[in-house]
Write a structure and sequence with these properties.
The complex is a heterodimer.
Chain A (H helix, E strand, L loop, with lengths): L6 E12 L2 E13 L4 E5 L6 H8 L7 E6 L2 E2 L5 H11 E4 L11 H6 L9 H14 L15 H13 L5 E5 L7 H16 L4 E5 L3 H4 L4 E6 L2 E4 L1
Chain B lengths: L4 H10 L1 H33 L7 E5 L12 H8 L14 E12 L6 E9 L1 H5 L5 E5 L8 E5 H6 L8 E4 L2 E10 L8 E5 H7 L7 E4 L4 H13 L5 E5 H7 L4 H33 L1 H10 L3 H36 L4 E4 L6 E4 L5 H28 L2 H6 L2
Parallel strand pairs in B: 3-8, 5-7
Antiparallel strand pairs in B: 1-9, 1-10, 2-3, 2-9, 4-7, 5-8, 6-7, 11-12
Helix pairs in contact in B: 1-11, 2-8, 2-9, 2-11, 2-12, 9-11, 9-12, 11-12
Classes of the chains: A alpha/beta, B alpha+beta.
Chain lengths: 227, 393
């Protein structure tokens, strides 16, 4: 395991304002995540696991504390820098797949690459490679509505890894899948962590899904209660 | 970098019902706008298409049009003898003193009467207007109460057909021929012998004089000479220039096009806005996803502006195509329009003319509708908080 953590979280707090009440979603959380780890964030609803994932991924901002990803303090980036940073460093997998319905599988996977300086031929090559990796090399021309849920989620994983990001974050990726598809998706994430040394952080409610990870963090009331 | 255009195109097409209604709405607005402009353009191009660049038209100083002008016989004689005027093969100066009169005639469609313009013209005047050609019957004979009318007037007014009669006060003029003015202002006229016209209408004076300078170098001298001669009190200008200035008739239609176009475009902008707001609403999670993938707020704004523009351009194309088809139909069935000419107070006949520059104007107009209508929805889309956008159903 590398000495320097990929993600270093220090005294991270997130407080939401709901009317006149302050709701603490995260309370002084500190944790290090290393390269190649498959970290599973678990805990009851409202425990702060999704909030923690969103802050690490740069789609939400902390109220206090810091998140350093490969030494970069994400909190210091402005909106536009943050968008670029996400594109280059983070791959996302959502519970509802979040594919663009009017685009084919290959076009969906190509979306993050359009923001890079890669030429068309190279983009095509990367897309084909990513789809191959998730076992959908022959489904590039299918639209999301022509695919099963499991296949759609695998396209979403291909989209997440096509830019070769440092982090892959997954928010309940098996929540909408049957057992077989869920197992397929988790196996892919696991192999990304084991074989490709990607750092995977996944939020899940499912204890079976947690078995695929290398480490589990249990959150309750905004704090890590078990590591 | 912007999202690929196919993403915008497919999104416009996938919501085909709302797209269709918005396109139809914008298309109708563009059609009305273009239709009015095409009528105005018809009048303008009729005037722009009239006259010979070698000719000079002389009218009384202070009068803007032939109908309000008087040229005495003495003035005509002085003009005729001016140096620098071309002469024909018989050695006669190429000068035509003409009289312009208004006669009320019944419309063929039974829709009341309208003023028509009768020009008393000389053989020199006909030589000076080679664009006017006889297409049916024969030319009038001097000393006869005969008249030759344009084919377009013949289609619009009762009694203007070959063999028909036109009532001019107590007199009756027999239609002996039809001419084609080739889309010029002469298509709104009937011609007869100048001296006969003075007798019929009991007029001592002429209305105007058309003449041809001997060569282009004498043109400015001749104009200066006529303008500066205090005895004459006349002014001369090129015949083409005179007609191209007679576009006042198109002004009210252009104003109407402006007012109606503006009023309808406001409605169309709201229609486009409604469609685009609905599109943003339906794609909130998609927008959140794109933002997560790294697309900037600017890309999102651009994306929705492009979609609004695409939607509107489809409407614009529909409007342009409809206007063009209307023109083809009107041309096929020889349909012309008439309106009161504010200079001559006679009916001027013109065609519906949809020109390429008008179509471009129509497309730009639709583009404006699309961009104006999609700006606020695009800004809303870009400002959506990423987290709540992702949670949207």
């Amino acid at each position: 395991m590398a000495a320097e953590p990929i993600v270093a979280i220090r005294e991270l707090s997130k407080v939401y304002q709901q009317g006149e009440i302050n709701v603490t979603a995260l309370n002084e959380v500190s944790v290090d995540i290393h390269e190649g780890e498959f970290v599973v964030l678990m805990g009851p609803s409202g425990s702060g696991k999704s909030t923690l994932l969103h802050i690490i991924a740069g789609i939400d901002r902390a109220t206090k504390g810091s998140v350093l990803v490969q030494g970069i303090n994400v909190a210091n980036l402005n909106e536009s820098e943050l968008a670029d940073w996400r594109n280059q460093n983070v791959g996302f997998v959502f519970q509802s797949f979040n594919l663009i319905p009017v685009l084919t599988a290959a076009e969906n996977v190509e979306l993050p690459l359009l923001l890079t300086s890669l030429g068309r031929a190279e983009r095509r090559r990367q897309v084909a490679l990513a789809l191959e990796l998730v076992g959908l090399g022959d489904r590039g021309h299918h639209r999301p509505d022509q695919m099963s849920g499991g296949q759609q989620q695998r396209v979403a994983i291909a989209r997440a890894l096509v830019t070769d990001p440092t982090l892959i974050v997954a928010d309940e990726p098996t929540g909408n899948l049957d057992a077989k598809s869920a197992s397929d998706v988790l196996t892919i994430l696991q192999s990304l962590s084991r074989v490709s040394k990607k750092t995977v952080i996944m939020v899940t409610h499912d204890p079976k899904a947690a078995h695929f990870g290398t480490r589990s963090l249990h959150l309750e009331k905004g704090e890590i209660v078990a590591d | 970098m912007a999202l690929p255009l196919k993403y915008n195109v497919r999104n416009v097409l996938v919501r085909w019902r709302t797209t269709l209604f918005t396109v139809l709405g914008i298309g109708a607005v563009v059609l009305v706008f273009l239709g009015l402009r095409a009528l105005a353009r018809g009048i303008e191009s009729t005037n722009a298409n009239t006259g010979d660049p070698r000719n000079l038209l002389v009218v009384r100083k202070g009068s803007q049009a032939e109908s309000g002008s008087l040229v005495t016989r003495d003035q005509f004689r002085t003009l005729r003898d001016l140096p620098g005027i071309a002469r024909n093969e018989q050695g006669e100066p190429v000068v035509s003193a003409e009289i312009v009169m208004i006669v009320s005639a019944p419309r063929r469609d039974g829709n009341g009467e309208a003023n028509t313009l009768i020009r008393g013209i000389t053989p020199r005047g006909m030589e000076l207007r080679p664009q006017v050609t006889l297409v049916e019957g024969r030319w009038f004979r001097p000393g006869q109460r005969e008249v030759v009318v344009s084919t377009r007037m013949a289609r619009r007014f009762a009694g203007f057909e070959l063999g028909g009669t036109i009532k001019a006060g107590p007199e009756r003029l027999k239609v002996v021929g039809q001419f084609d003015g080739q889309g010029s202002a002469f298509d709104s006229e009937a011609w007869m012998d100048a001296d006969e016209a003075r007798a019929v209408f009991d007029r001592e004076q002429y209305s105007s004089v058309l003449l041809r300078p001997a060569d282009p170098l004498t043109v400015s001298n001749l104009i200066a000479r006529i303008d500066s001669d205090k005895r004459l009190a006349l002014r001369a200008e090129s015949e083409v220039g005179y007609y191209s200035k007679q576009t006042m008739t198109a002004t009210p239609i252009n104003y109407l096009a402006g007012i109606l176009g503006t009023a309808m475009s406001v409605g169309a902008v709201f229609a486009a806005m409604n469609t685009m707001y609905a599109s943003v609403g339906a794609r909130t999670r998609e927008i959140g996803t794109l933002r997560v993938l790294g697309y900037s707020r600017r890309s999102i704004v651009l994306c929705f502006l492009i979609e609004g523009a695409l939607l509107a351009l489809l409407g614009g194309l529909l409007g342009c195509l409809s206007a063009w088809l209307i023109q083809v139909g009107l041309t096929t069935f020889n349909v012309t329009f008439g309106t009161l000419d504010f200079q001559s107070f006679a009916e001027t006949v013109f065609q519906f003319r949809v020109t390429p520059d008008l179509m471009l104007l129509g497309l730009l107009f639709s583009l404006f509708i699309g961009l104006a209508g999609s700006l606020l929805p695009a800004l809303r889309a870009a400002r959506l908080p990423v987290i709540s956008a992702l949670k949207s159903l």
